[in-house]
Amino acid sequence: MSAAQNEPVAREPQVDLTDEQWRERLSPEEYAVLRQAGTERPFTGEYTDTKTEGVYRCRGCGAELFRSTEKFESHCGWPSFFDPADSDAVILRADDSLGMRRVEVLCASCHGHLGHVFEGEGYPTPTDQRYCINSVSLKLEPSE
């Protein structure tokens, strides 16, 4: 099933904090992206061009989301991955904001906003998908 057709299964977040608790845990920029579906400016994120090997975790809850082996250079201004580390690591849902149809990517564990997934763009990846993810929503755990 393609990302655009995939609708999320209604499920409660495993990490469910109050708005006040999220504000205490996250910086203002992290909160704006993860909890309010904001977007960091392109080409400004910490992981846009990194080639460090490791696991990318949710900055909100620590859940494993992506691995460096699925990261690729898309030159779009945000870190791009062609597949999540585990198919259950993220939730995909329709996003009709900004006058266009997109597919939003959420952390399955805390329902934090990560970015969007696009397909059919012609990147030479195994899935023909580009998970365009905000650096500020991720925390890289380098391999040893």
From TrEMBL:
Source species, domain of life: Bacteria
Q: Name the cofactor(s).
A: Zn(2+)
**Residues in coiled coil:** none
Q: Which organism is it from?
A: Rhodococcus rhodnii LMG 5362
Which GO MF term does the entry hold, naming one?
A: peptide-methionine (R)-S-oxide reductase activity
Note the SUPFAM superfamilies from the entry. Mss4-like
First-level EC class: oxidoreductase
Q: Which PANTHER family match?
A: METHIONINE SULFOXIDE REDUCTASE (PTHR10173), METHIONINE-R-SULFOXIDE REDUCTASE B1 (PTHR10173:SF52)
Q: Which InterPro entries match?
A: Met_Sox_Rdtase_MsrB, Met_Sox_Rdtase_MsrB_dom, Mss4-like_sf
The alphabetized list of GO BP terms reads: protein repair; response to oxidative stress
Q: Where is the composition biased (Basic and acidic residues)?
A: 9-24
Which reaction(s) does the protein catalyse, per the Swiss-Prot or TrEMBL entry? L-methionyl-[protein] + [thioredoxin]-disulfide + H2O = L-methionyl-(R)-S-oxide-[protein] + [thioredoxin]-dithiol
Q: What is its EC number?
A: 1.8.4.12
Name the keywords, alphabetized.
Answer: Metal-binding, Oxidoreductase, Zinc
Protein name, entry field: peptide-methionine (R)-S-oxide reductase
A Gene Ontology cellular-component term? cytoplasm
